[in-house]
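Hi W.,

Here's what went into the run:
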Amino acid sequence: MGMDFSTLRTLISRYCAGEENCVDTRTVYIGHKEPPPGAEAFIQQRFPDNRIISSKYTFWNFIPKNMFEQFRRVANFYFLIIFLVQLIIDTPTSPVTSGLPLFFVIIVTAIKQGYEDWLRHKADKAVNQCLVQVVQHGKLSRKHSRKLTVGDVVYVKEDESFPCDLILLSSSRDDGTCYVTTASLDGESSHKTYHAVQDTKAYKTEEEVNCIHATIDCEQPQPDLYKFRGNINIYMGNEPVSRSLASQNLLLRGATLKNTEYIYGVAIYTGMETKMALNYQSKSQKRSAVEKSMNAYLVVYLCILISKAVINTALKYVWQADPNRDEPWYNEKTESERQRHVLIRVFTDFLAFMVLFNYIIPVSMYVTVEMQKFLGSYFIMWDDEMFDKELGERAVVNTSDLNEELGQVEYVFTDKTGTLTENNMEFIECCVDGNVYVPHIICNGQVMPGAAGIDMIDTSPGPEAREREELFFRALCLCHTVQVKEEETVDGIKHGIHQGKSSSFYISSSPDEVALVEGMKRLGFTYLRLKEGQMEILNREDEIERFELLEVLTFDSVRRRMSVIVRSSTGELYLFCKGADSSIFPRVVSGKVEQIKARVERNAVEGLRTLCVAYRRLSPEQYEQVCHLLTRAKLEFQDQDKLVAEAYDLIERDLILLGATAVEDRLQEKAADTIESLHKAGMKVWVLTGDKMETAAATCYASKLFRRSTQILELTTKRTEEQSLHDVLFELSRTVLRHYGSMTRDASSGLSSEYIDYGLIIDGATLSAVMRPSQEDSNSGNYKEIFLEICRNCSAVLCCRMAPLQKAQIVKMIKSSKEHPITLAVGDGANDVSMILEAHVGIGIMGKEGRQAVRNSDYAIPKFKHLKKMLLVHGHYYYIRISELVQYFFYKNVCFIFPQFLYQFFCGFSQQPLYDTAYLTLYNISFTSLPILLYSLMEQHINIDILKKEPTLYRDIAKNSLLTWPIFIYWTVLGVYDAIVMFFGVYFLFNNTTFTSNGQMFGNWTFGTLVFTVLVFTVTFKLVLDTHYWTWINHFVIWGSLVFFVVFSLLWGGIIWPFLNYQRMYYVFMQMLSSGPAWLSIILLITASLLPDVVKKVFWRALWPTNTERIQAKRRCLASEPSTIFMLSQTSSRISF
Amino acid sequence: MVKEEQEESPNRPDNTAFTQQRLPAWQPILSASIVIPMFVLIGAAFIGVGVALFIASRDIQLQELDYTGDDSAHPCYKCRSSTEKCTCSMTFSIPNLFKGPVFFYYGLTNYFQNQRKYGASKDDNQLYGDLDYFKDPSSSCDPYTRDSRNIPIVPCGALANSMFNDTFSLSHVVNGTQKIVPLNGKGIAWWTDYNVKFRNPSVTPLINAFNGTKKPTNWPKPIYELDTTDVYNNGFINQDFLVWMRRAALPDFRKLYRRITHDDYVNGLPAGNYTLTIEYNYPVYSFNGRKKVVLSNVSWMGGKNDFLGIAYIVVGSMCVVMSIVMLIVYAKFKFAEDD
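Here's what came out:
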């Protein structure tokens, strides 16, 4: 009995353990073999198969699911409700009027989404059906990719991509490594090395692999491509061997095997659990400022709509108080109508009025806005000036929702390396113990063969120094993660090592490392390759030295250094460490610290990127200890990162400083010009970089972020060490505010000559001190406010020593400051992703640090200089276009519906529509939709070249200036005015008289049609007045849509339509046109409607011209000689009227 | 400069004027220099048109006779509340020749023919002569679809039921004797209504088509007896019926009753005294309506309507005034710049 209980207990505990582990780990049985009975067993988990499903819908759920998703949008839902109300109650307009547009919108969207999904299905099917080779019972057999399950052992050949996430068991190469490109995952085309599990790398045939008996414990799938932790337990003989697994053992689905004949791997994550699939998840939606204003306007219009309906309902019942009005003898009610409760009658009347006026919020606006954004974004992609020949890349639009936001940017946050600079590193010099070495034969980054020249700047060193010097060179040759590629067909970064006949390249994810290794080559030490764990170096005497690579303490941005532990051929153990000066100096115990520090600072001021190199000799015992620390840390699942970091911290200490290196990163082409333009356009440019202050500041001066006249304010640890943060902050804010105060008195519009601009430099540590919310000190709460106040008055800010997350924090802080400015973040590397995601607009640069920034960005451009055109031209245009689009849409619907509202006062509040059903339905869909859509795609109020030359024009549209409330009210008032003119114009024309020469009278439909005709022409001509750029397409569409209206009306009234149960429009339009006064009144009313807008435009242009209008006028005057525009800009300004 | 030969990247965007947003374009600007002359021109043209319209409107003669009879002195006062057939007559004089063709209108005020439910209360299929709808009229006609014995009404609906049924005759007093002025009932309805939109069922005699249907409750006689003298003015294509069925746009409206185009009156009504005899049937008292008869002639711009002429003159003058103001501002602005 007791035994039974104990087995039960263990079972339960195991089960529970399994359940618990289910949360964070999984166990994989390689080849589906159960572990030996003695080993600890877990309950088998269920894993999905290897089917990739990127499609959203299936054949069956497409209609319900798609409908559900579409009606989740507020606008669609609103129109659905209106439609249903029309179906249910007796309404003035047929359900078709709102049903048809809604149906059209829904169907078009559904077709588009269905088509996209069908493509996805097809792609999924192709992927899922493709054959993979699997080891089964010691033999290779073929399987559909989707049938792969966790635990299958997969065989992959060269140039094939991995069908799921695999743990590398063995490869064709003897050292158990394989090369992989992850181009389709993160865009890095460089080859990366992956390592097989030590204990299985010898199993190289399917029979051998089949006898591997092991289990893998690993974490549950997570989307981070670069993180993986696991453990493999191998049951060979008696003792199971446990080994840790890391991301270097994990081959990701989507990556491609290169340079390796074949590999065997075991599937651990399949199907939707692969890291690639997990990375499909879409980013959160960003909304533009224009969209927010649009929603605000919508609310206003909704209120107008409801109040119109309420007013009319109320008036209806006041008016109907007289029973002879409510029910005159000629229009009696039915019995059921009489008996209906008054509240129900009021409510249905209210709904009927809502339905009658609902067109004031048009369905088509959403469609038009979306089409404008989608189609408009093609102009960005098509832009030849944003095409980079070198990279062969053009601008990429990842989301078209933010086009207009590009015209609203107030803060630009830019990364430095790779964004402002080229990220094309060149080794400039190194300094060993204060002696400076400069490789002197530089030929476009390539070194002449056999060159070993060294310019010694200082006196020749003694023997001891020489030993140091060689150690330094060796350190740089060994302490890196550079690979040697022996082929020429690498698409990525090419760095030739012309050595005899075979040419090879250094490849690394960090261009600095390549530059250093190349620099060493020029100084006589050539890194040859890593072979079987041995690093080979060709030294100055052309001898090959071999070092056994024992450990690599990889680089990370928190530690900001990396180390290697090597054993020389003589058996000595070395730890070489290189990293940022700030992370090396505190760990140094000896060496010529002062001299090197001085040199590092000097180089940094010149804008060079510096690294310090140090070493430490390890005794075998110390090495044992190191190994122990590392293995222990790596075996741990939980907090592995923390433990590893601690272990690294313990290992990388007591270093001896060897020297420093300097690498130059040249500024990108036209970076300075771009920054200057952004400044002139009124944007504040912040540089956020991980680099050190001096280097970053130098780059900032070079890129004209700081000018000579700029007064630099420093908020750095150096200063806060002297004074308290509190004092520094207050002092700075006083400086800035004093100046600001005097400036407001001068009240200049911007760039006056006395304008002193401030530049602020802040470092990461101080920043986190400023941002830290602390309870103890009540004052510190306002640090952030004071800091923001300072920043607001600085035209340029440099934040150095920033961690990636801090970049995002800064963006967030500015975003949420009280003005809520629009921010833009631009960067090229993985460390910029957080700020790219955080900012209103994220822009990725197609740089050398992979594609992560590009993938996460909203827009991607090949070079930083393209930002200028992106913002000043495209952003400006899109903003102008969409703001007109939004205002115009509301305007034309006020014009449309307000006469209908007025008509209620003359038809006994009976909800009689003024216009025919066809006009109600098609007004927004076809009569007035294309001209504005085209306007919003083509309009150029100013030429592209002028926008580029005059960045200050960007200020004209800052702060959403075209969608402010006064302008919105102007448009609405104009709409109401036009509606009144149109309605009462026709009213007085109809007033008790005929206007035909045959004496016949016109009815109510003629009345409506006359108003409608004036309406369509007026709103189209309003757009004509606003169009500044008339291409043949504009002419075609504008005149074409008017012709279409006329032709449609003729057709609609010209035929007895058999499917209609009423023929009320029959010949109405033709009869109207047969009357001379109708023509005259159409001309009169159109003119009267447009008159005030024209007058307003002319007066505003004359009395309060904006910069834009000034430039337009100048351009007009000087149209014959466009090149002299800017020379004459002062003399011609008086003609701007 | 030698053009460098380089292979085009497949990724390179098309370099066309359209994709680069550099299509040739006309770039007009609404500046004063264009607008001022434009306004002057428009203003002049509008004032010209306005004056012409105003003169044309002024020349139109109009004779309006209110016969509601709410005033006890009015000859039609007796008919106002009478349920019997009632006739009354009014006399009026025309001082000089009323130029022809003269149009004879009746007018109603405060009558909401543009009520939504009222306007929808008809069956277009019936009116198109479709016999299926005679038996089963559309429910939009409620409560005028069937009579109390559930027999379908043709033509159904409030609109037809409330058809105006006052009749008028006009006589000219020549040498103390009444001379009837012939009234022409043709061509008062739209040609398309008469020929296309409304149709009698193709049954002869017409009366057979209406078996099993009732006349509208307010009508004294069924639709097939509206004009027994003329087959082409009877049934649904009776022109008075057609005129009534075209709903007026506003609550105060006029409808064409007859044209005076015959005999001695081709050139108009000569000066003299006339008597208008009204068969007073149509009740308007309950809703405070008024009834009137209007005699009018038309010009090229239709009936008498000063609005269009005045509006043209006003808008035209506005244009001129605006252009002057703009000119002043322009001048001032220019001087300011020169200083």
